[in-house]
Design a protein that fits this description.
Helices cover 66% and strands 3% of the residues. It has 136 residues and is mainly α. It folds into two domains: 1-90, Orthogonal Bundle (Helix Hairpins); 91-136. Strand 1 and strand 2 (116-117) form a beta hairpin. The chain binds magnesium ion (MG).
Length: 136
Amino acid sequence: MNDNTTGLSQLIKLVTNFRDERGWGKYDVPRNLATSIVLESSELLELFQWDLKTLSSAQLKKDKDRMEEIKKEMADILIYCFSLADDLGIDVSDSVVKKLEHNARKYPIKYFNKDRQDNDYYNKVKAKYRANKKIK
Ligand SMILES: [Mg+2]
């Protein structure tokens, strides 16, 4: 299986079959899954803990052992994301496309492109976003 030949629904089915065969579905409640996503994300971040210098992607790709660990932690994160999507009936593809559309409106290409990164505009966007998120 690889990204060119595997559909997202196939992957989600593999994850849910694995879970169901072991009787672990009873643990898959949203709070547990969200917690697991954060914990697995921390395990990914831990692979970079105490790095004295920031490695480029090209440098990192040469470290085969570390790349294997990164793959494993990324898979753990995705597995829990797919489980949460399945549990809540979320269509992952639709959610990603809609979020990218939202982000495109939030960060217009005229302000953010290969020739320009407008930090003033970025700070205005973030301030507006945070103001709208306040508890009323
Ligand atoms: Mg892990």
